[in-house]
Amino acid sequence: QGQLVESGGGLVQPGGSLTLSCTSSESIARFMTLRWYRQAPGEQRDLVAAIIAGTTTHYLDSVKGRFTVSADNAKNMMYLQMTSLKPEDTAVYYCNLRGTVLGDSPDYWGQGIQVTVSS
Q: How far, in Å, are 1, 10, 62, 94 from residue 110 at the CA level?
């Protein structure tokens, strides 16, 4: 089964930046959707950003213009670059790969990594 591992989280002050990385044990080029989710304390898990079919991107409205999702197929990694961070961005962030071009339905999740934005 595929494994995903997030890294790059931590504590940052408001207005600061962090880049999260997600390393996949399988080729990410074969997955239809590459996604980042987050779950804040006491909140439901929300979709933050996604790459669909390797071209189209989607962002949660509250992070548009501040977050950038990208992928490096050669390294089997995906990234979430976060700038102008706000306290409300504090959450556990998860990467997710779902579906392949062959039509099967794998659903791989990372363990999650904490991002805390605080003065």
A: 12, 16, 23, 6
